[in-house]
Sequence to fold (336 residues):
Amino acid sequence: MAWLLATALAALSFGCRGGGDGGQSARTTPASAPSPGPIDVASVDDGAPYLVVLGIAQDGGVPQAGREDHPGWDDPAWRRHVVSVGLVDPRDGGRRYLFEATPDLPNQLHRLSAHLRPDAQGPVLDGVFLTHGHVGHYTGLLFLGFEVIGARSVPVHAMPRMIEYLSTNGPWDQLVRYQNVALQPLADSRPVALASDLEVTPFLVPHRQEYTEVVGYRIDGPSRSALFIPDIDSFEAFDQWGVRIEDLIERVDVAYLDGCFWAQGEIPGRDMTEFPHPMIASSLERFAPLPAAERAKIRFIHLNHTNPVLDPAGPERARVLEAGFGVAEEGERVGL
Fold:
């Protein structure tokens, strides 16, 4: 059953700017909300590295604080965690990495342990890759700190301004002083080798940079590769940088792309034309000329709590699927 949009609360968070984050909308609660299970987006070769989606929501999660009428407060089937993917390499004793350190990190770390449980004497994580300094993408680092896990030198990979921000602002600098984290500087388009056949490459993307740079990642494994761009102002802004998103999609097997909002009008009473995220309805139009095999690579992620594609039985989700695209689901895996 489609969600019915109503009035909006004007509020602001670091993620999707303006009413998109704090915007409140009312939906009818289904008698039994669909609960889509995990799917294999690409075949996972036995023993090979793979990605697992641990969260698909915008920075505030679903339901979001202040949204008291959301069915997710009573029905767990409607809940979604903040955007994150895990990288699991089961070879040579196993290694686990997180892309983003979200406010949902405790649950996401637990879910990651279902794929590969860490050695009791080993590190809680083998690394974290951050995209930028908005609230849903790095604040989970606090759980690595003295008051919670008390982790030992977890490598945190980030761009130079992000490194400086974490090093010089509390409470993040305490993580550095207590050696809960070991900051690892990234450089635009310079790969980080995790194994001889597994590497992660950051690349700059246009998005609000109040405190830090913003990057996406290309993740290359032995057989396949994936794109992870949870935040971007627009694909047209990328064009102005001389980068066509279609070219990046062509070079990978799966592309997780920012799909924060569905369309103009999603947040009643707000002009959404200047919201710094591509709208899925517009992305469908832009990518429509792509061959079917290219469209099938695209899976929308980082979905605002108002986005109607979150309803698996809604017409907006059907439109995405009928056009040959996908919507990321928590638990799905991508073999690398």
